[in-house]
Amino acid sequence: MKVDFERVNMISCGNVNCYVIRGKSGDILIDTGTAGYRNEIEVWLHNYNVKLIVITHGHNDHIGNAAYFAELCGARIAMSEDDISLAKCNISRNIYAVGVSGKAMKKALFKRMENAAESFDVNIPLKDGMALGEELGIKGCKAVRLDGHTKGSFGILHGKDLYIGDAAMNHKKPSFPAVCESPAAARRSLERVKEISPERIFFGHGQPIEGRGPEYRNMFVRNIL
């Protein structure tokens, strides 16, 4: 489906997406990409006033620049405490491959996992339903637990927009995460996405999708559940 990119602050860096939610007194950066794309992302961040970094989960392709951007922007970092140990060592927990694409991704993922990202402090432990960015003048923004891909995976719901990290992926079509720590938990999280019924969904990997009414929701659920 065609995506209306108006009012979408999306930074694509390789096959990983970062997003910015704008506020009156500062902005939220969702995920930080890999260290290899640091310079490109930093150029885009000059357009924003990032004061809070929200990490959807602890894999290196999402935390690679967390320490650097936190210092650069004077920003606090919010992430689930359940993924702190994972952020320190990505190969510390087992993951399951889902389907043929999952097997290929698992092999590539483990290569990236072997090199630890720069360590960083988590200033705000994410909790389900926690309001985010109120001090920045951002209304209607909260954390949504979407575990399964990792134990501490979270999404961010802002109005009717849902940023889901790797709770689902959209390389060719919206799909179940190709790798996950708990397939059962990942499925429950996607059921929660269905219940939330967002108007737009923003993925950590792949293009955003949007739609209106039950046709969109049925299309999304049919492809990933």
Extended strand count? 15
* CATH topology name: Metallo-beta-lactamase, Chain A
Proportion of helical residues: 25-40%
Class inferred from helices and paired strands: alpha/beta
Distance between the termini: 18 Å
Question: What's the CATH C level?
Answer: Alpha Beta
Summarize the topology:
Blueprint: E1 10-13, E2 16-21, E3 27-30, H1 38-45, E4 50-54, H2 60-63, H3 66-73, E5 76-79, H4 84-88, E6 96-97, H5 99-113, E7 124-125, E8 141-145, E9 154-158, E10 161-163, E11 169-170, E12 174-175, E13 179-180, H6 183-196, E14 200-202, E15 209-210, H7 213-224
Parallel strand pairs: 3-4, 4-5, 5-7, 10-14
Antiparallel strand pairs: 1-2, 2-3, 6-13, 8-9, 9-10, 11-12, 14-15
Give structural attributes.
225 residues, alpha/beta, Metallo-beta-lactamase, Chain A, 6-stranded mixed sheet, 5-stranded mixed sheet, 15 strands, globular
Describe the structure.
The protein is an alpha/beta fold and 225 residues long. The protein has one domain: Ribonuclease Z/Hydroxyacylglutathione hydrolase-like (Metallo-beta-lactamase, Chain A). It is built from 7 helices and 15 strands. It starts with 9 loop residues before the first strand and ends with a helix. The mean pLDDT is 89.
Task: Produce a short descriptive summary.
With 225 residues, the chain is an alpha/beta fold.
